[in-house]
């Protein structure tokens, strides 16, 4: 047990409390339990798989259309002010249905500026190991090779998409998620995971968090948790929500601000006959480069959108999806207001991309159309998706060098609080185009170093 617990007690004691069991909370838990500390991890969501936090693709053998419906059902919209922005409230968070695309951010255009290049390289390399990132998943696919060669002959630089997954002995793909991250510590006596437990608030005295409150959503009972160190990894919107609800926002002017969300363009194509003779899956991507601030992924994947008509022969259909970086702007923000039915202050978004961001998105749309038509004909017309569709909100608890423009330092420790660390895409300070989770894991691994140093001091 990662807690000292007496049946009649309303106070749980542990070395580290982690709020949120998504992949980032899981990374913190894994590293701290492996270092010998007691960890209590709580999540407001239910445990939906026998092994906590399994990727649902590993357990449900369903079509992509059906998996899209699973994702739609799992997503809880956060606010009518950005209807597409959502959270997944479950053990495992969004890693129960994410698409596992885990690219390394471009070293000069996207990577965090807070770390030296060699430090960042070592953090990201460990992050890749922990998520089992590989670019070889579809190496035997001749269709993937042919598409790459065809596109790269006209000046592109498409590569096999790095995916967080492993192959089983019989060749099945096992997608990484909270369950694969936690698997080495799941049976540890130092680790406790409580589903259906909401952490509404933490309490601060002087420079320290002294306790956190916890509500069991199954029994509506209330607990207090006393820990040495506290880690909030509840997602880019619900982490600042807890801090706001704990009356700590006055001393953290950057909380909720500098919010970035990628703009997304999307279409689906039926591949031209010249490619349709080749067999195999396709999952290729092109990253950002000077003058091109977007990433392009060509594959066939389940998202909360993009279902195809049941009677369509989908064998030759591919998704073409681009995501552009937007520049961090202090005015783009999530704010919190009146309390909702869960007793937490409700988020509302004030976000508008700048003219420069919109110009990049317009260029991205043109390039996506030209790429798509070079490969086949449209099944789904190209469109710009509503803001929030990427589900990659970042920056709301950004890391930086001062409390005026950031919420945490380079160890992801909250400014002015000795024992409070944050994790997740919220800490990412840069406006990145590429998928953010691997980068958030890199930040978390540095955060682990800070927590360990504090625990041993
Ligand atoms: C369909 C889909 C596809 C995606 N594909 C990719 C991809 O290919 N590549 C990529 O990089 N990213 C992708 N993402 C995003 C990725 O899943 C997230 O970046 C990642 O899961 C964030 O991890 P996290 O641990 O910070 O937060 P989350 O996974 O959001 O987990 C946060 C957890 O905190 C819990 N929580 C919230 N508030 C409280 C509270 N007050 N008390 C207790 N618990 C609380 C929630 O229940 C949740 O379980 C995708 C997301 C979706 C939905």
Describe the structure.
GO terms for molecular function: FAD binding; oxidoreductase activity, acting on CH-OH group of donors. This is FAD/NAD(P)-binding domain-containing protein. It comes from Arthrobotrys conoides. Residues 329-444 form the Glucose-methanol-choline oxidoreductase C-terminal domain. InterPro entries: FAD-bd, FAD/NAD-bd_sf, GMC_OxRdtase_N, GMC_OxRtase_C, P2Ox-like. This protein is α+β, with helices and mostly antiparallel strands. It has one domain (11-456): FAD/NAD(P)-binding domain (3-Layer(bba) Sandwich), CATH 3.50.50.60. It has ten helices and 20 strands. Strands 1, 2, 9, 10, 11, 12 and 20 form a seven-stranded mixed β-sheet that branches. It has a six-stranded antiparallel β-sheet with strand order 6-14-15-16-13-19. β3 (75-77) and β4 form a beta hairpin. α1 runs parallel beside α10 (437-456) and α4 crosses α10. It is globular and about 70 Å long.
